[in-house]
Amino acid sequence: MSGFQRFLRSWREARRFHGLPRQDREIVIYSEGGGYWGFFEPVVESLVHDHGRTICYLTSDSHDPVLHHADPRVRAFYIGDGSAMIFLFQGLQAG
């Protein structure tokens, strides 16, 4: 994927996240890279499976393994590390 394609994807994903109803953005996790999934996975799995929660997972890594997570209660968004990420964080409203 080219840099321009990642740029477009990050903006599309930021808009998709902002389009969610507030109650669907109650728990938001941000990861700088796919290597952090190993630390976040047990927390996410517990929240989803043990507590029945839905998670929004924002990542700056287009190869983050969570982007291929099969559980619909884990909503993953690739937001990049540039202007889309800054825009999203400036207006972030979550629980």
Helices and strands in order, then pairings?
Elements: H1 3-18, E1 28-31, H2 37-50, E2 55-59, E3 74-78, H3 83-90
Parallel strand pairs: 1-2, 2-3
Helix pairs in contact: 1-3
Model description:
There is one protein chain. This protein starts with a helix and ends in a 5-residue tail after the last helix. The chain has 3 helices and 3 strands. It has 95 residues and is of the alpha/beta class. Strands 1-2-3 form a 3-stranded parallel sheet. Helix 2 (37-50) links the parallel strand 1 (28-31) and strand 2. The chain is 40% helix and 15% strand. Helix 1 runs parallel beside helix 3. The model has no long low-confidence stretch (mean pLDDT 94). The longest helix has 16 residues, at 3-18. It has helices at 3-18, 37-50, 83-90; strands at 28-31, 55-59, 74-78. It is globular and about 40 Å long.
Q: What are the main properties of this structure?
A:
single chain; 95 residues; alpha/beta; three-stranded parallel beta sheet; 3 helices
Instruction: Let me know the average pLDDT.
Output: 94
Q: Beta-strand level of the residues, as a percent range?
A: 5-15%
Main β-sheet, spatial strand arrangement: 1-2-3
Can you write the helix and strand succession as a string?
A: HEHEEH
Shape: globular
How many β strands by DSSP? 3
Question: What's the story with the biggest beta sheet?
Answer: 3 strands, parallel
In short:
Helices cover 40% and strands 15% of the residues. The chain is of the alpha/beta class.
